[in-house]
Amino acid sequence: MGLSTAAIGALAGCATPGTTSVNALPTIPPVASGEKITLTYWAWLKDLQKVADIWNAKNPNVQVEAVWIPGGNSGGYPKMYSALAAGGGPDLAQVEMRTIPEFMLVNGLVDLSRYGAEKHASKFDPTLWGQVSFTGGVYGIPQDSGPMATFYQPELFETVGGTPPATWDDWAALAKELRGQKIYLDCFPISDASPFCAFATQAGAQWLTPEEDGWVINMTDDATMRVAKFFDAAIDDDLVTTSFTPYSPAWFAAAADGKIASLTSASWGDALIKGVAGGEGKWKVAPMPRWGDEGYGSSYQGGSTAAVLANSKHPKEALEFAVWMCTSHEGIDAMIKHCGIGWSPAADYIGAERQKPSEFFSGQNYNEEVFVPAAKEQNPDWSWWPITQQSFNILSDGFRRKASGGTLVDAVAAAEKNIMAAFRNKGLSIRKAGA
């Protein structure tokens, strides 16, 4: 998995004028013994300084200063790009996994393999490590992820004698039964293509593949079309509501009022679902439904990295802090406690707090029972691409037409053509699979 050499070159060729790849320059030596430095880390995690302070107490010569910035697409990324173009910026920055290739477009990231990142690979979930690894290079340290499962209200399922659906066909049957009770099983956001992407990934889709001569796109493969047809039918048959999105005020109201029975979402959704009024003891967690015998047991939604930006003067020390923060027991526990971080990227530790039963989720030890296996049942072949956010915007625009008679199937096919055009506008080579 990862970008080919040619694809790396194509990304570098689209860099902001005046920038050069730091990865073509000699490596920066580590600080001399006794020298004191301060690393800066821009992130949208709350109270990250409290995590850094644990490191700081043990590493007096390498201090970390955390600086809060808005979420990436809410202003954080433009701030990073501006700093890079001006020759500045922090040592570390929170960058979503799906956005790593976009930063490579502007030569914005240090290849951490040049500073020994590979020796830490075994400490991380291999699927996540694959999403930051490109042709022998490592362009970010996995910081958190979002394996998926189904959060549900057992009492609502029991109104029709239902149990958590094992397959999506079971899901559709249960949804139909619940509609007879004026309950929706779930919602489907037509304004946000991210959940659809996660479902297609679970089914085995691989939309963009880097090859030696550029990118190959295949958004109309069997797996994606199966998912699009399935949710076209679910919406047409009123099995799901499209009138609100997950975690919106309307969603919380419906969940509290017993009008929506479940939500298939990422692990980080547990903290949000605890905001459902009167919900304590009324929710449980089950594995995500499967696409029959095909695809994977789970998928992923969200996930970020601690990336070292190109203008860092201390990339080796930045790497060491990032690995400590994301794999040590004290770092992971502190990020859960202070930052509400998503699922741990560590290969062997989910955090002490997540090894306990939850009163809110009916006394279930759901993290170990459901999310530990889910994290190991994800599509390992999925690759993100240089214009992921623009691609999602294109697909979401097409999905909105569902409200006025369009179809998800047509929206995906149209989006594929528009994404190909967007690639070419960036000077990137792309072709349709089989062409």
Textual characterization of the structure:
With 435 residues, the chain is an alpha/beta fold. Helices cover 37% and strands 16% of the residues. The chain has two domains: 5-145 and 303-371, Periplasmic binding protein-like II (D-Maltodextrin-Binding Protein, domain 2, 3-Layer(aba) Sandwich), CATH 3.40.190; 147-299 and 382-432, D-Maltodextrin-Binding Protein, domain 2 (3-Layer(aba) Sandwich), CATH 3.40.190. The chain has 16 helices and 14 strands. The strands form four sheets. Strands 1, 2, 3, 6, 11, 12 and 13 form a seven-stranded mixed sheet that branches. It starts with a helix and ends with a strand. Residues 1-6 and 12-18 have low confidence and may be disordered.
Number of helices: 16
Indicate the CATH topology of the largest domain: D-Maltodextrin-Binding Protein, domain 2
Spatial separation of the terminal alpha carbons: 22 Å
Overall SS class: alpha/beta
Q: What portion of residues is helical?
A: 25-40%
What is the strand tally? Answer: 14
CATH structural class of the largest domain: Alpha Beta
* Shape designation: globular
InterPro entries: Bact_solute-bd_prot1 (IPR050490), SBP (IPR006059)
Organism: Paramicrobacterium humi
Keywords: Cell membrane, Lipoprotein, Membrane, Palmitate, Signal
Pfam family, one: SBP_bac_1
In short, what is this structure?
The protein has helices at 5-12, 48-58, 76-85, 100-104, 126-130, 154-158, 168-179, 194-203, 222-236, 249-256, 269-273, 315-327, 329-339, 366-375, 388-400, 408-425; strands spanning 37-43, 62-68, 92-96, 133-134, 137-138, 141-152, 186-187, 208-211, 214-217, 240-241, 262-266, 284-287, 300-308, 430-432.
